[in-house]
Amino acid sequence: MLDFLVGLSIYSLFIAIYGTLVCLPIFRLIIVIIKKTSLKESLYIVLIPLSIGYYLNHDDTHITHKIYIVLQILLFVFALLGSFFLFYTRFA
Questions:
Q1: How far apart are CA 19 and CA 79, in angstroms?
Q2: Which residues have C-beta within 8 Å of that of residue 62, sequence separation ≥ 6?
Q3: Alpha carbon of 18 to those of 6, 13, 34, 87: distances in Å?
Q4: What's the domain count of the chain?
């Protein structure tokens, strides 16, 4: 059982890292293409890290905003599960 939980936390950590580094920028790029924003706003949304540019230049009424929030929460849960592995290896 402990091996399963350690494996789950390792995979969760990898999903959180790669999901955050790959999925979120790709999703922001898709949002820019769908919304057809200006070049300046597009560069803000895609290139500013930590989704700051996205939150500064995006309206809350579009369905992509809800999908983006769910994706962020899901990746946060994976990162939280992955952090259990780090605590386990530190204190075990």
A1: 10
A2: 35
A3: 19, 9, 24, 20
A4: 1
Among residues 17, 6, 3, the alpha carbon closest in space to that of 85 is found at 6
The answer on pLDDT for 88 being more than 80 is no
- Residue 76 is part of which domain span? 8-91
Q: Is the pTM of this model over 0.85?
A: no
Rounded distance between C-alpha atoms, residue 45 and residue 12, angstroms: 27
Q: What pLDDT, in 10s, does the model give residues 23-71?
A: 988 999 998 898 888 899 888 888 888 888 888 887 778 888 889 999 9
Within a domain: 29? yes
Max Cα–Cα distance, the chain, nearest Å: 52
